[in-house]
């Protein structure tokens, strides 16, 4: 470990030798990334980490599941979601808040159904694109 990495990893110094090699490698990689961040990036990370620590286990699980779902999307679908996010961010803060409140005030089942409808729309769009491309190949 470099001195900079040791400084970042000081909280686990006592347990370092007991940690599995894979975990030590992961921590060392994280320390390297941390040392590459500028001050603003570090501040942003700390703020996000504090928010994550306050997040309930149920919400953490939901976030992890959504991340896995996002990772399983096609590049085209990922880009469509990114574009939707960009469009959302262009809305005024008041409009964003109203939409977030509206979504958050939905009963859990309704939120789940809403997400499912969005997922089905993406799948339908993907199927239509496939069929269109498939027809074009055979015509």
Through-space gap between termini: 62 Å
Radius of gyration over C-alpha positions, nearest whole angstrom: 21 Å
User: Kindly state the mean pLDDT as a whole number?
Assistant: 88
Please tally the β strands and state the result: 0
What can be said about the biggest beta sheet?
A: none
Secondary-structure element order, N to C: HHHHHHH
**Secondary structural class:** mainly alpha
Give the overall form. Answer: extended
Question: Could you explain the architecture of this structure?
Answer:
- This protein has 139 residues and is mainly alpha-helical.
- It is built from seven helices and no strands.
- It has helices at 3-8, 21-36, 39-54, 57-71, 75-90, 93-104, 108-138.
- The mean pLDDT is 88.
List keywords for this structure.
extended; mainly alpha; 139 residues; 7 helices; 81% helix
Topology:
Elements: H1 3-8, H2 21-36, H3 39-54, H4 57-71, H5 75-90, H6 93-104, H7 108-138
What's a quick, concise take on this entry?
With 139 residues, the chain is mainly α.
